[in-house]
Automatic annotation (TrEMBL):
<feature type="domain" description="Orn/DAP/Arg decarboxylase 2 N-terminal">
    <location>
        <begin position="32"/>
        <end position="279"/>
    </location>
</feature>
<protein>
    <submittedName>
        <fullName>Type III PLP-dependent enzyme</fullName>
    </submittedName>
</protein>
<feature type="domain" description="Orn/DAP/Arg decarboxylase 2 C-terminal">
    <location>
        <begin position="24"/>
        <end position="373"/>
    </location>
</feature>
<comment type="similarity">
    <text>Belongs to the Orn/Lys/Arg decarboxylase class-II family.</text>
</comment>
<dbReference type="InterPro" id="IPR009006">
    <property type="entry name" value="Ala_racemase/Decarboxylase_C"/>
</dbReference>
<dbReference type="Pfam" id="PF00278">
    <property type="entry name" value="Orn_DAP_Arg_deC"/>
</dbReference>
<dbReference type="InterPro" id="IPR000183">
    <property type="entry name" value="Orn/DAP/Arg_de-COase"/>
</dbReference>
<dbReference type="Pfam" id="PF02784">
    <property type="entry name" value="Orn_Arg_deC_N"/>
</dbReference>
<dbReference type="InterPro" id="IPR002986">
    <property type="entry name" value="DAP_deCOOHase_LysA"/>
</dbReference>
<keyword id="KW-0457">Lysine biosynthesis</keyword>
<keyword id="KW-0456">Lyase</keyword>
<keyword id="KW-0210">Decarboxylase</keyword>
<dbReference type="InterPro" id="IPR022643">
    <property type="entry name" value="De-COase2_C"/>
</dbReference>
<keyword id="KW-0663">Pyridoxal phosphate</keyword>
<dbReference type="InterPro" id="IPR022644">
    <property type="entry name" value="De-COase2_N"/>
</dbReference>
<dbReference type="InterPro" id="IPR029066">
    <property type="entry name" value="PLP-binding_barrel"/>
</dbReference>
<keyword id="KW-0028">Amino-acid biosynthesis</keyword>
Length: 431
């Protein structure tokens, strides 16, 4: 008998038959275990906010919220998603370097916990919007610190960046509280970088961020009601990487948090996590359409590709590294061959896996890319060659639920307008 990949007892072939491929499958139990694996060990004063950027599916957000996650959003649609998923406004923060007037207004009108401002002009705009509404706007300042994070996949702070306000600049602004009377300056946020796989680096970052927040609060005379220490917790994808150990991490973090809360008992502490919460729970399932050889190499041409999973091309490196992959419908067969796994796009870049050890692949097989629950379709060129968005399925409590329909041709065509070169009176300047 062949061994098949299953999610909570639901067979992958059944999911493929029912929903078609390509398909993202999310395991609700894996999401829960991931969240609780950290939550149950982490100091209770540290709240976990889910960064919707990693996977903005509304059902994923709702499920994580049901486990206890709050929400960190960066666009109007993410904000709406979090609220519709049932996250109360006081558990939502809004971040991002280029927020629109409309987004800032929505922050104030929905009554979210904090707008994290990334420049002084942004604070001024929020001040103006608050005055128009006769409210006081809760604002935290995103700081770009002087120190940089070591061994992060992608540094977001500690160097010239469009994010946040430079530490040096902020320390010179001790009239901020007075200058913006309709802004309630209530906290500090720092986000150092993503894909950190060393517990000690996260502990050190957190320590330095909390210390910076205290210094800023003294210098600017602002009340420290909230400190958001960012996060950047990674997951391993490639050979030679290993996952963070939640126990080791919290053994290091908890005393730092305890020490801070002893001095600031009322301060709300926030950690923002995207990838760490969702990556492991997702599998990208592709159906193999054709197999062939080219100049001695084997190719499995699948119905899915980099238009849904750009990260599989190899994040943060110039060398192609493969995500963990398998032939899902024959898990028990030994990987005796090497296969290039490619998609339907007309570019050699559409290579999901290069020389992946797999068993002999046949058309109709289901190839899965594991750990694909974060930065999948929304971080990929989904419109390239007009294939559009894949279906997404959540399996929870032993049952599968379609949580995103795949795009159909009409979905992709409906926003285009046909200009007719032969018509006499094509209206111009129409918006
Ligand atoms: C992208 C981002 C996150 C989430 O990052 P992960 O590495 O997915 O956890 C959190 N906060 C900010 C400010 C971000 O830009």
């Amino acid at each position: 008998m062949t061994v098949e990949f299953q999610v909570q007892g639901v067979r992958v072939s059944e999911l493929a038959r029912r929903y078609g491929t390509p398909l993202f499958v999310y395991d609700g139990t894996a999401l829960r275990d991931r969240f609780h694996g950290l939550r149950d060990r982490l100091h209770p004063a540290m709240e976990i906010f889910y960064s919707l950027k990693a996977n903005p599916n509304i059902s994923i957000c709702a499920l994580l919220h049901s486990f206890g996650a709050r929400a960190e959003v960066s666009s109007l649609v993410e904000l709406t998603t979090a609220l519709r998923a049932g996250v109360p406004p006081q558990q939502v923060i809004f971040l991002g370097p280029g927020k629109s007037r409309q987004e800032l207004a929505a922050c104030l009108d929905t009554g979210i916990y904090a707008v994290v401002c990334e420049s002084i002009p942004e604070v001024a705009l929020v001040d103006e919007l608050a005055r128009e509404r006769g409210v006081k706007a809760p604002v935290a300042l995103r700081v770009n610190p002087r120190f940089a994070v070591k061994r992060s996949g992608l540094a977001m702070g500690g160097r010239p960046r469009q994010f946040g306000i430079d530490e040096e600049e902020l320390f010179g602004q001790n009239d901020l509280v007075k200058r913006f009377p309709d802004v309630d300056l209530m906290g500090v946020q720092v986000y150092m970088g993503t894909r950190i796989l060393h517990e000690a680096v996260i502990v050190e970052n957190t320590t330095r961020i909390l210390e910076l927040a205290e210094r800023l609060s003294d210098a600017l005379n602002l009340e420290l009601r909230m400190v958001d220490v960012g996060g950047g917790l990674g997951v391993s994808y490639f050979d030679g990487e290993s996952d963070l150990d939640a126990q080791v991490l919290t053994d290091g973090l908890n005393p730092v948090i305890e020490d801070f809360t002893a001095r600031h008992p009322g301060t709300r502490l926030i950690m923002e996590l995207g990838r760490y919460l969702t990556a492991e729970a997702g599998t990208y399932v592709m159906g193999v359409r054709y197999t062939k050889t080219s100049m001695g190499e084997r190719f499995a041409v699948a119905d899915g590709g980099t238009h849904h999973h750009m990260a599989a091309v190899g994040i943060g490196s110039f060398v192609k590294r493969n995500f963990p992959m398998a032939v899902l419908n024959r898990l028990d067969e030994p990987a005796t061959e090497e296969w290039n796994v490619t998609g339907p796009l007309c570019t050699p870049g559409d290579t999901i896996g290069k020389k992946v050890p797999l068993p002999p692949v046949r058309p109709g097989d289901l190839i899965g890319v594991h750990r694909s629950g974060a930065y999948g379709p929304t971080a990929s060129p989904g419109l390239f060659l007009s294939h559009g968005y894949p279906a997404e399925v959540l399996v929870h409590e032993g049952r599968s639920h379609l949580v995103r329909e795949r795009d159909r041709p009409d979905d992709l065509l409906k926003r285009q307008r046909l200009y007719d070169p032969t018509a006499q009176d094509n209206t111009t300047h129409e918006r």
